[in-house]
Amino acid sequence: MAAYDIRVIGDPVLRQEAKLITDIDGKLVRLVEDMVETMYAAPGIGLAAPQVGVQKRLFVWDIGMGPLAIVNPEIIESDGEWTFEEGCLSIPGLSWEVVRPKLVHIVGRDLDGNEISIEADELEARCFQHEMDHLDGTLLTERLDDDTRKAALKTIRDLRLGQSAPAAPAGLSLPEKKELRLP
Length: 183
Known about the structure:
This protein is an alpha+beta fold. The protein has helices spanning 26-41, 122-135, 146-160, and strands at residues 46-48, 58-61, 68-79, 82-88, 91-100, 103-109, 115-121. It has a single domain, classed as Peptide Deformylase, CATH 3.90.45.
């Protein structure tokens, strides 16, 4: 069973900007462990703290090499363009083609307080950008063009009213559950 319930679209916590983390302590490490458990149970490849109702600048991810966490992340560089079908654990069962930069350079801290710097491309870069959006109070629907956004919001409203069932999200193969590792 997941440690947390994932907040879904409509929850005001998803629209708030997360706060910088000033202390990396045992409570934060436990939060990360619980977030990883929740991410795997969903199942997903990334989870930001606001998605579990915690307004801290932190996210976890696993694109197949084991779970990782980053504290107070910042994307300092991006390049290129990559279109890919993207879903969100806070908008379950739905996904859309979204254009984002193909490459990103992200910096932050690990759970020992050490500076980390990661250059990522394609899926990992997309995951970082998606989770950073959550830390800034931005949802995936805001990355859609106007017509697609209107259709998406209508679909979400209809689902809330129980008028139709969502299709399964386009196939990403999700990583197996693994122990948390630090970059």
